[in-house]
């Protein structure tokens, strides 16, 4: 499901489950977190490029897995750890969104340093239709990136943003035909400067308390709406 390769100064991490629009199961979350952890030895490419295989970036959490959860709070915390690993990676992380990003897919993108969309990209937080919400750090990062007003609109309505709307709201910084080209552009910078810039711009207070509250609220809603989640999965 998670493929990695190094191409010069860019490490490419691919969500590779196109038949399911790259939806993430618990084991996939573990593999994705490990892909962003610092290597035990040797250098790390100065830029990591996160992408999805096929015609979607990521559909978020696999609904079969969500419907079967017996510990939804732990599942939410697992997703938060993945997002934190992306955000805390020593590499500059460029996320290229080509096609749909939904729910957890949006949250993975939010954790990246640079988000770039193709004209085909679309974004939505559809959790409200299941009686849930994005609990992989979404309630922390979405208002930080878009501003509180836009974040509330997007999360409460579940509406779909096209690439231009994502650009207007700050969800992405560019709309280009080839997002990988942005990763290559950034990789042309000096590696130590890239790392220093990321450290300084990412230096902020700890959001751990907010994320723990987020995970607990997600668990409560999951339990309350388990039947509706199962019905949605069967459609």
Architecture overview:
The protein is α/β, with parallel strands linked by helices and 235 residues long. The chain has one domain: 2-enoyl-CoA Hydratase, Chain A, domain 1, CATH 3.90.226.10. It is 48% helix and 16% strand. It has eleven helices and nine strands. It has helices spanning 26-36, 63-67, 72-88, 104-111, 138-146, 148-157, 163-169, 180-187, 191-201, 208-224, 226-234, and strands spanning 2-7, 10-15, 47-52, 92-97, 100-102, 114-117, 122-124, 161-162, 174-175. The strands form two sheets. A six-stranded mixed beta sheet has the order 1-2-3-4-6-9, with helices on both faces. It has a three-stranded mixed beta sheet with strand order 5-7-8. GO terms for molecular function: isomerase activity. This is Enoyl-CoA hydratase. InterPro entries: ClpP/crotonase-like_dom_sf, Enoyl-CoA_hydra/iso.
Secondary-structure blueprint:
Layout: E1 2-7, E2 10-15, H1 26-36, E3 47-52, H2 63-67, H3 72-88, E4 92-97, E5 100-102, H4 104-111, E6 114-117, E7 122-124, H5 138-146, H6 148-157, E8 161-162, H7 163-169, E9 174-175, H8 180-187, H9 191-201, H10 208-224, H11 226-234
Helix pairs in contact: 1-3, 3-4, 3-10, 4-5, 5-6
Please supply descriptive tags for the structure shown above:
single chain; about 240 residues; alpha/beta; 2-enoyl-CoA Hydratase, Chain A, domain 1; 6-stranded mixed β-sheet; 3-stranded mixed β-sheet; 9 strands; globular
């Amino acid at each position: 499901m998670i493929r990695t390769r190094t191409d010069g100064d860019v490490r490419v991490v691919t969500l590779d489950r196109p038949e399911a629009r790259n939806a993430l199961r618990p084991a996939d979350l573990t593999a994705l977190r490990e892909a962003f952890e610092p290597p035990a030895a040797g250098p790390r490419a100065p830029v990591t490029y996160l992408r999805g295989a096929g015609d979607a970036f990521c559909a978020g959490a696999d609904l079969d897995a969500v419907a079967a959860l017996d510990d939804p709070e732990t599942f939410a915390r697992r997703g938060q750890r993945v997002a934190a690993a992306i955000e805390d990676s020593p590499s500059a992380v460029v996320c290229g969104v080509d096609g749909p990003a939904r729910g957890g897919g949006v949250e993975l993108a939010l954790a990246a340093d640079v988000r770039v969309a193709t004209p085909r990209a679309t974004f939505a937080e559809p959790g409200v239709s299941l009686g849930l919400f994005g609990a992989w750090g979404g309630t922390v990062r979405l208002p930080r990136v878009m501003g509180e007003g836009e974040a509330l609109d997007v999360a409460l309505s579940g509406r779909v943003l096209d690439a231009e709307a994502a650009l207007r709201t700050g969800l992405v910084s560019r709309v280009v035909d080839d997002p990988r080209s942005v990763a290559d552009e950034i990789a042309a910078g000096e590696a130590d400067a890239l790392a220093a810039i990321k450290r300084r711009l990412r230096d902020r207070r700890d959001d751990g308390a907010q994320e723990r509250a987020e995970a607990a609220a997600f668990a409560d809603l999951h339990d309350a709406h388990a039947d509706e989640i199962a019905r949605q999965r069967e459609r």
